[in-house]
Amino acid sequence: MTGQILEIATDNKHLSAKDGFIVISEGQVELGRIPIDAVEAVVVSAHGITYSHSFLVRLSENNIPFVACNQKHFPVSYLLPLEGHYKQGSVMDAQLQANLPLNKRLWRDLVKAKIAMQISVLTHYQKPVQRLEYLLKSVKSDDSENAEGQAARFYFQALFGDNFIRDREADGINAMLNYGYTVLRAFIARYSTAAGLHPTMGIHHRNALNGFRLADDLMEPFRPIVDFAVYEMITKGETALTSTVKQSLVNVFSGNIPAFLGQTQITICMQNLCISLAKVYLKEREELDLPYSPQPWDWEALNAFIAV
User: Fold this and answer.
1) CA-based nearest residue to 235, from 130, 297, 185, 161
2) What is the rounded end-to-end Cα distance, in angstroms, of the chain?
3) N or C: which end of the chain has fewer CB within 10 A?
4) 259 — alpha (psi -120 to 50), left (phi > 0) or beta?
5) Which tens digits make up the pLDDT trace of 82-139?
6) pLDDT at 3 over 70
7) What is the CA 168 to chain-centroid distance, rounded?
8) What predicted TM-score, i.e. pTM, was given to this entire model?
9) Tens of pLDDT, residues 50-83
10) How many C-beta atoms surround the C-beta of residue 57 within 10 A?
11) Mutual orientation of helices 296-303 and 100-124 as an angle, nearest 10°?
12) pLDDT score for 168
């Protein structure tokens, strides 16, 4: 799996196939095209999207899945060809057959990446990080000593103040965090499904009533980006989940952070992580493609995507 995931996130576009290209149009105006053989999957998360029958046929002929999302941007259907779609079938088989030691190692790596990102946020604001640095070094297989939970308790109070309590039902900062995490979860759910992974088969999360356990696993390293955006907004006087705050919590994911190939858009980092997990399960690579911890100038650049 080496191609890119094509996401249609802008309303009222038309998709068609012509001369080996996916063509994106609005009305009679062609907006762009991309070679079909460069696409790993197509994800539609916008409204008012139309597409031709020949477009869907061409996707199927090229073994490209088509993922449709609902108004909350979560995948609700997954169109696959009847024959020859070896990639997604192979990925799901490999995901199902992944052994426990592998998943324990993967969860350890996800937790370490999350704590490293939390350290980066606190360092940017010149807040204490010694406790997190200790926990980062102590993360074991499957995070058996719950370093992730210990880190979260310290981190939230270090960032938002000693009196802050993380409460998913509360207003204010908590509501802002909840919205940002929901946006993040929707991104990861779309990209993991498009990468051929089954969303209910998690690495660490096990809740039988959760249809997106895998998204809850893979979103962890990116959560501190939401925390950063919320902190920036409250320092500018925002205290409630307004429409402007909501837009900023979507916009921030259009920014860049460092990754293996250099500065990379955050949504592309998410896609790369999902694709790398598929490759790990297929035994095509050993490690996840995890984002690197941003430097102070990276956080400053991200601040430009926050509208308030």
Assistant:
1) 161
2) 39
3) C
4) beta
5) 554 456 788 999 999 999 999 999 999 999 999 999 999 999 999 999 999 999 999 9
6) no
7) 20
8) 0.81
9) 999 999 999 988 878 788 888 877 677 778 665 5
10) 12
11) 80
12) 84
State the Cα–Cα distance between residues 290 and 276, nearest whole angstrom: 9
Confidence category of residue 193, pLDDT binned at 50, 70, 90: confident
The confidence score (pLDDT) of residue 271 equals 93
Q: Which residue has the tokens 């869907």?
A: 56
Residues in Cβ contact with 100 at an 8 Å cutoff, skipping those fewer than 6 apart: none
245: nearest Cα among 183, 298, 188: 183
Exposed, middle or buried by CB within 10 Å (0-12, 13-18, 19+), for 236? exposed
Q: What distance in Å separates the CA atoms of residue 199 and residue 245, rounded to the nearest whole number?
A: 28
Q: From 290, 271, 276, select the one nearest 6 (Cα to Cα).
A: 271
3-class SS string, the chain = CCCEEEEECCCCCEEEEECCEEEEEECCEEEEEEEHHHEEEEEECCCCCEECHHHHHHHHHCCCCEEEECCCCCEEEEECCCCCCHHHHHHHHHHHHCCHHHHHHHHHHHHHHHHHHHHHHHHHCCCCCHHHHHHHHHCCHHHCCCHHHHHHHHHHHHHHCCCCCCCCCCCCHHHHHHHHHHHHHHHHHHHHHHCCCCCCCCCCCCCCCCCCHHHHHHCHHHHHHHHHHHHHHHHCCCCCCCHHHHHHHHHHHHCEEEECCEEEEHHHHHHHHHHHHHHHHCCCCCCCCCCCCCCHHHHHHHHCCCCC
Kindly give the pairing relationship between strand 14-18 and strand 50-51: parallel
In angstroms, the CA 85 to CA 107 distance is 29
Measured CA to CA, the distance from residue 150 to residue 114 in angstroms comes to 12
